[in-house]
Design brief:
Order of helices and strands: EEEEEEEEEEEEHH
Number of strands: 12
Helix content: under 10%
Largest sheet: 7 strands, mixed
Number of helices: 2
Strand order of the largest sheet: 1-2-3-5-7-9-11
């Protein structure tokens, strides 16, 4: 049922994380208490540097980390099927995104371009996108992950 996350930092309803209160937290792991994370849940959490998602999460809402100025590293779930637009906009220090899903997640909400997930390529600096070794060719063949912007950053 609805209620606080085990650590008391969030609120979950219908297996969806809707609210996160992480002031002063630099690292956070989203546990197996939800299957979906709502829109803007981590937006403007100005202290977050590193976030990891439990593998069972299948959908991440739009604007996920919008404005997380210190964010450097995100590890996405292996079961991830959908990622919302504007997930990593205005995250100037983002260095590493670990895509653990063997199947490339779909871009939701009418996103048409990888710029709809990440920031302007010129502002992204050293960002690297890591995908499972066995899935590299699949990501290379799947929109929007097949765009040259992503390919040049994939490791």
């Amino acid at each position: 049922g609805p209620g606080a996350t085990p650590d008391g930092r969030g609120y979950v309803e219908n297996a969806k994380l809707l609210i996160f209160a992480g002031k002063d937290l630099t690292e956070y792991e989203v546990g197996n208490y939800c299957e979906e994370v709502g829109s803007d849940v981590f937006a403007y959490q100005l202290d977050l540097i590193k976030v990891k998602f439990d593998d069972n999460i299948i959908r991440l809402g739009s604007g996920m980390f919008w404005g997380c100025q210190k964010l450097e590293e995100v590890t996405l779930p292996s079961e991830l099927k959908y990622i919302g637009i504007h997930s990593f906009i205005d995250c100037p220090n983002l260095k590493s995104v670990y895509m653990r899903s063997p199947l490339p997640p779909e871009l939701e909400q009418y996103g048409t371009d990888v710029d709809d997930i990440f920031d302007d390529p010129e502002r992204l600096g050293d960002l690297k996108i890591y995908v499972p070794e066995s899935s590299v060719s699949l990501y290379k063949d799947t929109f929007p992950w097949n765009q040259s912007f992503c390919l040049s950053r994939r490791r």
